[in-house]
Write a structure and sequence with these properties.
The protein is an alpha+beta fold and 351 residues long. 48% of the residues are buried. The protein folds into 2 domains: 202 residues, Fructose-1,6-Bisphosphatase, Chain A, domain 1 (2-Layer Sandwich), CATH 3.30.540.10; 134 residues, D-Maltodextrin-Binding Protein, domain 2 (3-Layer(aba) Sandwich), CATH 3.40.190. An 8-stranded mixed β-sheet has the order 4-3-5-6-7-8-9-10, sandwiched between helices. Helix 1 packs antiparallel against helix 2, helix 2 runs antiparallel to helix 3 and helix 5 crosses helix 8. The protein has 8 helices and 19 strands. The protein is 28% helix and 23% strand. Bound molecules: 1,6-di-O-phosphono-alpha-D-fructofuranose. 1,6-di-O-phosphono-alpha-D-fructofuranose binds next to loops.
Length: 351
């Protein structure tokens, strides 16, 4: 890989590792890089460009499909990613945390190609958006599946309801003290840092792996009173081992730190809400794929999250992801728990 530097060069060079690769996925990944640069520009100047605060339509606060209020930047990021992805000939459908259903991409209608593309993109355009107004890191998360239905027809929900083990690629963008794009197509995880003076992402973190050490645990401890006591037991054990707590409220930022420093992120289900808060398609699955590629693991109270088939587009899931040793210890404690969180009924089918 000597001489490979920019995201685009790297993606294209990696394509050669896959026999019969056509370059379609490479094009899609570089388009995601382009959308990330556009969102990055807005995130960086949010305080100056009047784009802080909640988004309003007809004088009312806008809400997404899950009833959560939308920030102006949520709407901008959703708009930007969907616009760029729709122009990518290989994309046949998009689902976004901010939109109720599938966004179909019919290229033949615009005389740009034959029917619908073969890639299905799941996206959380702006993860942790409540951090924007207080100038703390936010992110974008994406996952790419190969569609199962015929290319001549609009995509169907089942094209997106696949286990994370079937992801063709996944990644995130972290808009932090510097902006990074981290992705995997299944042959390891690589990270790229954005150089704003040149306007390019450059390879800065090749072959990312969780380090040997377990240093950090990330959890919102306000969510622990109504969950499996094994989690509190696990956290006590983490402290005993000298691990420290760090939690930003943006999953991407917490995941990234834990990947670099060695740690685990926990967002459990509760007895009253066994499915937890985080979204399966837009948050949990892409990060589970990346964690595995980086030598880590992901659990969701009862299963390896990679094996779980989501039941609906906006399904939520408990999420424990990070260092493989931390996950293994947590699993053991959960298995021995006197009060496990019940499995959400009828939501998941294991392969
Ligand atoms: P928002 O995108 O609505 O801010 O949610 C962020 C998030 O899904 C994830 O990024 C955080 O880790 C988690 O929620 C924080 O949730 P709590 O506020 O309950 O800790």
């Amino acid at each position: 890989m000597i001489g490979v530097n920019t995201l685009q060069e790297f993606v294209v060079a990696r394509q050669a590792d896959f026999a019969g690769a056509t370059g379609d996925l490479s094009r899609l990944l570089t388009d995601i890089g382009t959308a990330a640069k556009m969102v990055n520009r807005h995130v960086n100047s949010a305080g100056l460009s009047g784009i802080l605060g909640v988004h309003k339509a007809n004088g009312n606060t806008s809400r997404n499909v899950q009833g959560e209020s939308q920030q102006k930047l949520d709407v901008y990021a959703d708009d930007t990613f969907t616009r760029v992805l729709k122009s990518c000939l290989k994309v046949g459908g998009i689902v976004s945390e901010e939109q109720p259903g599938i966004i179909h991409v019919d290229h033949s209608a615009r005389g740009q190609g034959r029917g619908y593309g073969k890639y299905m993109v799941c996206i959380d355009p702006l993860d942790g958006s409540s951090n924007v107004d207080v100038n703390i890191s936010v992110g974008t998360i994406f996952g790419i599946y190969r569609r199962k239905s015929p290319l001549t027809e609009p995509a169907v929900v089942e094209d997106f309801l696949q286990p994370a083990s079937e992801l063709v690629a996944a990644g995130y963008v972290l808009y932090g003290s510097s902006t990074m794009l981290v992705y995997s197509t299944g042959g390891g995880v690589n990270g790229f840092t954005f150089d704003p003076s040149i306007g390019e992402f450059f390879l800065s973190h090749p072959a990312m792996q969780f380090p040997k050490e377990e240093r950090v645990y990330s959890v919102n401890d306000a969510r622990l009173s109504d969950t499996d006591p094994a989690i509190s037991e696990f956290l006590a054990d983490c402290r005993q081992r000298g691990m420290t707590a760090r939690y930003t409220g943006a999953l991407v930022a917490d995941f990234h730190r834990n990947l670099i420093q060695g740690g685990i992120y926990l967002y459990p289900g509760s007895y009253s809400k066994p499915e937890g808060k985080l979204r399966m398609l837009y948050e949990a699955q892409p990060l589970a794929f990346l964690a595995e590629q980086a030598g880590g693991a992901t659990w969701c109270h009862h299963h390896n999250l990679l094996d779980v088939v989501p039941g609906s587009l906006h399904q939520r899931t408990p999420l424990f992801t990070g260092h493989a040793d931390s996950i293994a210890r947590l699993k053991n404690m959960m298995h021995a728990s006197a009060r496990p969180i019940p499995e959400p009924e009828g939501m998941w089918v294991l392969r």
